[in-house]
Amino acid sequence: RQDINVMAFEALLSGYVILMAINSRRFIPLALIAMSPIIGMQLLWLARTISWRWLTAVFSFIVVIFASFLLYNNLPLYSIAGGSHTNEGSLFEQMHLVNKSYSYELVRFISDNHINGNILCPWTWEGYIHWNCPTPKVFVGGRAQQVYNEETKDQLDLILSGNSTHEALRKNNIDLIAAPYEGLYMNLINTVIKQGKWVPLFVNGNSFLLANPDWKPIKGIITKQDKNELIFINSVTEKMTKAANKLNSDTRSTQLKALQSLENVLQEKTSFWIYKVLTDALSKEQDNDQATRLDIFLRQELKRLESIRIENASKEVVISRTRIAVALERYYNTKGMDDQAKLIKDSLSSAQSLYKLGP
Fold this sequence. Notes:
Shape: extended
Structural class: mainly alpha
Distance between the termini: 57 Å
Order of helices and strands: HHHHHHEHEHHHEHEEHHHHHHH
């Protein structure tokens, strides 16, 4: 009778959790967790009832092999030391691969500098930002398609579309944008920086924190930024952030200094964003001397990236190679330098094949 009561309780609990899973659109993982006790009891019954001991032994052997395979491949990711993997944050965050999905460094910057305001971020970041920085308010997080009404979803779509972006940001009182430099958010970041003059507060190439120029606290934060009083846990990120702000300057000399600063950063960190900035500058450069300098630098960087062995090349290295090669090929075709363009085209084909294979 006790077994029947336990089974009844597990069935009710499973049904409740499955309903929660369906509502939160997390059906499969939560359903598996809920059903695991019942499945375990059924397997135990099977093992005790069936006299085929060899079947139990084979099943156990398969489970052990599968678990050993997972352990072998994931053990480095659980290590505090990290080995060849870059781990950041607490042991819990390392075990859950937080650094692969969220910007640990950006969240630390928000927390350490007590930044508060209405933040627009990807729905995948909302919970992580709330957990680590409970003070800022997040606009449209979670499953926006299901949790929020149609008007709110339409506003988010309008912001990310690039059409009437500034009006939508102003209408929804968004003070800050925290986002990765990828997909629709890459276009949003480029748009608000160039057209809306949003202020980069944090830039590490992979993620950005931008502030609305009309946001009241921005003047105080900019003053701290000018006095080097903002707290960064990484000196390279601080250099990239300062350079990103100088790129928005109306003074050409300041813009050129920013480009040189980013070139120096590449000695410490490979960054697709930096290469994008440099290649964009090359395509728009009117001064022949400056264009030649950028051309020479980018060719040197392309050779350096090509020299990195494929087993040691990260995705950042591969997509950076592709970006440089595409930009140089277009530049040489525009200048009528066919021989140079052909050489770069070969390099581009090699980089694209590596990207398909995956670093």
